[in-house]
Every structure is written in C-alpha cells, then in structure tokens.
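cron nightly-structures :: item 1 of 1
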Amino acid sequence: MNFLAIECSSETLSLAAANDLDAWYFESAGGALTSSALIPACLNGLTQLDLEFASLDAILFGKGPGSFTGLRTACSVAQGFSYAHKIKTLGFDSLLTLAQSTRQFKPEFTKVLSILDARMGQLYVGAYEWVDKRWQVILSPELLSPEEVSPPLSWTQAPTQPPFLLASNISIGEQEPLFHALQRHSHCYESMQLSPRADALIELAKIHLSRPDNATSSFNDFSLPTPFYLRDKVAQTTLERLHSRLDTLPKTS
C-alpha cells in the first residue's frame, strides 16, 4: 500500500511516505517552522518515491493529544490534500505512535509508558502493551501533572516483571517531580527520549488494516481529519503564571 504520513504533535516535524518497495523519511524542528516546511517536504517525499497523490491509499496523521498548533497544522494539511485529491485519511493516537516509534530502537520492550509534554506543567500520558504483534491500550491517554503519573499496576506488582520503557519527548532527568513519582511506584524501567515518528504511523496503519474488519471501514471520509484534544487551553494568563510562580516559593511562618 502507498501512504503519506504527517506527525507534528510535538516540537518535531516528522514526515514519511512509503510504497510496497521503498520508504522516505524526513525530520526537522517543528514549532513555528512546521507550516512553511511541511507541504514542500511532503511533495519532495512523494517525488523521491515516484508517487503521485492519485496512487496513495491514505494520508496518515497523528491526531493527538499534543501540540495545539502542530495538531491543527497536521489536520489542515491532511484535509487539504484529501479534499483536493480525493484521498481518504486515517489518524492515530500520538501516544500510541510514540510507543510504536520505540520499536525501531528498542524492540525488546513490550510495555511502553508514553509521555508527551503538555506545557503548563502538565503531561499527556498513555500506556501500551505489545501482544500478538499489535498494541493493546492499557491506559488511555490522560492529562496529568508530573506528580500524578504512575505505570499500570500490572507492570509493577510482580517483582519478576520485565522492565517497561518510559518514552517521552522530554528529558526525564529534567523532570524531577516526574522522576520521583515514578520512583515511588517502580524502579523497574528504562527511559528513552524520543518524539512520535511519522514512519511509525505507517507501521500502525499496516497493523491496523491487516485485520479484515478494519480494511474497509477505518478511513475517514474525504477532507474530515480532526484532532483529538484532551485540553483546548493552550496557554496560561499572566495572572495564572504569576500564581504558579508564587506557589513554588518557600512558605514563611
């Protein structure tokens, strides 16, 4: 099958395309640069694989949760391509995409706790387990403070459990509250800093569409890719930021 994949739910712009014989991958800084780089890079990727829009089976996109601007950009571009060229679309949870992304680097881990920076002192968190060559959702995506994060109980209760992988687009070493929260629940994990990758979207699509009941019923209608938000607020007010700073100051008697 032929796919074009767009993933920009974090601060990284990740694009991929694939046909039955070859694949193309592109990655760059996202954020404010995403909107200017995304479309030219997609067109270049299709050219590299000698693909035309008419030959695509679907446009894949990371639907969130994640960066508000990134999700809207990904959905807007997928929507434009879909409408103009009559191509169906298929979106995947960005935390699941992050779990799939780890399989390129650490395939020995079958349990992945995925974490994305949600800004404003919060995190997007989901847990996934690789069983029978597909992912099972153990914890659906949640919006949590670092202190609230914990792995699934089934991953930590048995002392002989193999370690799980904590995958995040932020450095765990720079997140002291998150580090201490995890240490309270388990010492049996490894961490990896990584953003969701667009080529993982292609692998997820192949896995998903390999099931006969998903092969024809999973695609969105033309031009209808939509983001998945756990929070529709993207920034704090000046007063909220001030209160947040005051809350971190030492209390005096």
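cron nightly-structures :: done
The helical segments are 34-48, 68-85, 94-101, 153-156, 176-185, 198-209, 238-247.
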